[in-house]
Specification:
The complex is a heterodimer of chains A (363) and B (131). In chain A, the strands form four sheets. Chain A has a six-stranded mixed sheet with strand order 10-11-12-9-3-13. In chain A, strands 14-17-16-15-18-19 form a six-stranded antiparallel beta barrel. In chain A, strands 5-6-7-4-8 form a five-stranded antiparallel sheet, covered by helices on one side. In chain A, helix 2 packs across helix 7. Chain A has 363 residues and is an alpha+beta fold. The N and C termini of chain A lie far apart (46 Å). Helices cover 19% and strands 34% of the residues of chain A. By secondary structure, chain B is of the alpha+beta class. In chain B, the strands form two sheets. Chain B has a six-stranded antiparallel sheet with strand order 1-2-3-9-8-5. In chain B, strands 4-6-7 form a three-stranded antiparallel sheet. Chain B is 21% helix and 34% strand. Chain B has a single domain, classed as OB fold (Dihydrolipoamide Acetyltransferase, E2P). The chains are: A alpha+beta (363), B alpha+beta (131). The interface between A and B is medium-sized, with 18 and 15 residues.
Chain lengths: 363, 131
């Protein structure tokens, strides 16, 4: 039996194609994925992302605990900020990539749906002497994501919270339709937007309220299909594709989320040593030059010689061609390098491009 | 009679259709296959004119937004013509899978290959059982 979010019936009633995603029955799309993608790039779209794990940590040692388990510096982060971070194993491999919310009395860790139980076990097994309480709120707290250039405009129409004061990776607590919600300016699409956390009983009411507020401006519900094409264009990693327990944050070029200057944290030693290895690989973005759509697992070649693999490949609705992310030998990772993508006997020409492939215009 | 499964064509388990007029064949994919791809075909690759294929050989690849699908040859044939229109505008396949959305035309190599093809009613049963 697959897990369902509180919006499951709504998705069914609105013709969503439902798929198994990390043991959750989630909407892949309601209509054309390309349409949904472009709605988020040009207007705004609403995603049900309640499948993601939400773990609240309370108690006097919560910051010290998170500081020891995550690679980023949560101690120096001011309250009401969000931080992108990693949980690493002692070898420096990524257990999960997470966002950490820091408030006066708690920390919330948002993790991938596919890793929720693993992360919970990892946190619990390191609880030790820390005076903390770890609570999984995935099933009591719902999570919506409202993304796109007009997300702020539409959302501001239905909340008294001053959204312009919520800067990128900040959050606030406010009311929508009288319901207390946590709103952060975060997302996974490369657009401006918000993630909204609220009691699961209110998920349907607030979901519909946001759609209603934006309907005249073209706001629509968006499925996980477009979520994937949006995040690949923005070159945001997905656990299980770009990252896993055999990948370090440094290999994907995310060293800025690893703070070596802070006190010891799990994985620090291994990550320090990994920087001097000559057997390193780099995450690259690439664009197909002609036909062909790259897919996960296809081989990447340079002058016909294998140098790596595709991690994620999509048809990009923005660029109208195949694009992807992949790992290659560090020495071949230079922007502009001509490469080939191989699928059994078929070989397609591609070129390494600057990450991210898509960057929104800032006004 | 199902308008999405024309009676005059033959079908495969892999959702290709084929029309056969003496030795001349035309091949495409069915409306059902297009539906399964969310009516979003974004890339098509076809063989060269003159290429020879055996029954069940892969003769091309189509991509939806989400995944790649191989195209299997319903019969052994030599390619005489490819549909260049669908290469530059793959959405034609979604809109007109049985008309302008064909992939290749060819000369049948072995008449015996026809025997194992599905009729319209057999194909209809197949897709009902898939659902």
């Amino acid at each position: 039996m697959l897990l369902q979010t509180p919006l499951h019936d709504w998705h069914l009633k609105h013709n969503a194609k439902l798929v198994d995603f990390a043991n959750w029955e989630m909407p892949l799309n309601y209509e054309s994925i390309i349409e949904e993608h472009s709605t988020v790039r040009t207007r705004a779209g609403l995603f049900d992302v309640s499948h993601m794990g939400r773990i609240r940590i309370k108690g006097p040692d919560r910051v010290a605990f998170a500081q020891h388990l995550t690679t980023n510096d949560i101690e120096s982060l001011p309250e009401y900020r969000v931080q992108y971070s990693f949980l690493c194993n002692p070898q420096g491999g990524i257990i999960d990539d997470i966002t950490v919310y820091k408030a006066e009395e708690y920390i919330i860790i948002v993790c991938n749906a596919s890793n929720r139980e693993k992360v919970l076990n990892w946190l619990n097994s390191h609880k030790g002497k820390y005076s903390i309480i770890i609570g999984d709120e995935t099933f009591s707290l719902s999570m919506l994501s409202f993304q796109g250039p007009i997300a702020e405009l539409v959302l501001q129409g239905i909340t008294m919270a001053s959204l312009s004061e919520i800067k990128f990776y900040h959050f606030a607590v406010g009311l929508i339709k009288g319901v207390k919600v946590l709103i952060s300016r975060t997302g996974y699409t490369g657009e401006d937007g918000f993630e909204i956390y609220l009691g699961m009983l209110y998920a349907n009411a607030i979901w519909e309220r946001i759609l209603e507020a934006g309907r005249a401006r073209g706001v629509k519900p968006i499925g996980l299909g477009a979520r994937d094409t949006l995040r690949v264009e923005a070159c945001l990693p997905l656990y299980g594709n770009e990252i896993d327990e055999y990948t370090t944050p440094l290999e994907i070029g995310f060293g800025k989320f690893v703070k070596f200057e802070k006190d010891d944290f799990i994985g620090k030693k291994a990550l320090l040593h990994s920087t001097s290895s000559e057997f390193t690989r780099s995450l690259i973005a690439f664009e197909m030059l002609g036909n062909g759509i790259p897919r996960k697992g296809y081989e990447i070649l340079f002058d016909g010689v294998p140098i790596g693999n595709v991690c994620s490949g999509i048809y990009s609705p923005t660029f109208r061609k195949g694009v992807g992310l992949g790992f290659v030998d560090e020495y071949k990772a230079k922007i502009g390098t001509p490469i080939q993508v191989r699928h059994s006997e078929r070989i397609y020409d591609a070129v390494i491009r600057q990450r991210p492939l898509y960057k929104r215009r800032k006004y | 009679m199902n308008p999405n499964i024309p009676e005059t064509l033959y079908y495969t388990k892999t959702h290709e259709w084929i029309s056969i007029v003496e030795e001349d064949v035309t091949i495409g994919i069915t409306a059902y296959a297009v539906e399964q791809m969310n009516k979003e075909i974004v890339s098509v690759e076809l063989p060269q004119v003159g290429a020879k294929f055996n029954k069940e050989d892969i003769f091309g690849v189509i991509d939806s937004v989400k995944a790649a699908f191989d195209l299997y040859c319903p019969v052994g044939l030599t390619v005489t013509q490819i549909n260049k229109a669908v290469l530059s505008e793959p959405s034609i396949i979604c809109d007109f899978p049985y008309e302008r959305g064909w992939f290749i035309k060819g000369k049948l190599a072995n008449k015996a290959d026809i025997k194992s093809l599905l009729s319209a009613s057999e194909y209809e049963k197949l897709i009902k059982s898939e659902n």
